[in-house]
What does this fold into?
Amino acid sequence: MRITELFQRGEFVLTAEVGPPKGVELDHLIKDAHEYLKTRVHALNVTDNQSSVMRTGSLATCKVLKDEGLLPIFQITCRDRNRIALQSDVLSAALLGIENLLLLTGDYTTLGDHPQAKPVFDLDSVSLIHAVKRLEEGFDIAGNAVDGAPPKFAKGAVVSPCSDSVDVQLAKMEAKVKAGCEYFQTQGVYEPEKFIKFMEQAKQFGVPVQLGLIIPKNVGMCRYMNANVAGVHVPDEMIAELQADKEKTKAGDTGVEICARLIRECKDYAQGVHIMSLGWENRIPEILDMAGIAPITPAV
Amino acid sequence: MLITQLKSKETIEALAQGKTVIINCHGCKEVYFAEHEADELQKDLTGVTQIVTTDYICNPDNLKLQLKKHMDVINAADTILVFSCGVGIQTVAAQFEDKKVYSCCDTYPLPGFQGVTPLNVDCGQCGECYLNGTGGICPITACSKSLLNGQCGGAKNGMCEVDKDMGCGWERIYRKLEKLNKLDNMKYEAPKVRNYHNPNAEEPTI
It folds into this structure.
């Protein structure tokens, strides 16, 4: 099913991110997905060579998850494929019954483990959304007709509410909506007041937005993100909170509490939550429990 | 060698709004510039208060010197139309932050080099000059990913994720358009997609 149907029904849509490994052993990922995520989130984002690090593909992993009775969201970046390959993979997704897409520009190649690779960026997030919409209308981006019944997807994209240039981000968000984007997931939010202010401006677009969360694991990670990760800022008070009880933070409990609190504070302004747990999938049920979000009935 | 091909007469006429100053660059012998055609076209434009034909406008110091005696007319102008390669247009746009500076040429490689002065602006010779919509800052060369539809999520404090010493090109474009009260430029009818099939168009080197 398409997650846009859930938004339309007025559900508070829950998603989590899983990253395929560098290798083809998916047992661990599948086990975690069943154990911690199946009854807690509606859909699972599958990253596309996240952070420009080469791994098993997103589409193949989506298919495996679908066969396991889970609902995958196929993340597609423009970094590694030109417009021919991108559209071809979108059609392949339809062929495999993958109906949810998250369309991204992608990190630059030099950020990952193949810094010598050719960066593609033939399309970008906006023109990729446009290309998918054209396929849904029965045409490719060059205007050629597509045979048979056209595919239909839930077309998603990302936005950074806590960016230091939020006006530039809103302009891009507007372009994405205009191109056909139907839902947004945000970059990790640690500042509820910025998110709420952002949502006041973003609601004019009439497109659902899921609050993005990255579980803060420790002080070092937060400092690293502050220095290097665009659109993410962990305030000093939160870093102090992680510093205060080192044992508790080490056990992961502080990060879990912070995420639950962020959900409670932002819940009324968002249409869902997207959790990027970076390997801490097992903590997601606790976060949702603490935030007062009940288990769900799996959508598929 | 490169070719600066004139944009269509309709395009250029639409750009010449209000009092217009024209700057022609006949500097490089390596550039094939359609001088005669440009002269003919410029005769028919309305609102032109000054035509400056000079050389090497890619050199900011030279540009300043060459325009010195025309500054009164330029200050009073609404629009500056530049007939040069993509580097020249960007140099003029950078010099006149508050003016609408428009490109009247598309630049193609043949192959060869462009504006001879070493600078931190560059022309990708894409053959479909975007500078008129982007405040005279080139999205092909000022953005590491050569994005055409706005900022990616990778800018931090206005700097690029690829090179922390490089400003985010789209942040610069947005701020420039904001200053010119031209943010609507970013509201495209359909997203822009680059045409790599342009004759001899080559990818920019980063």
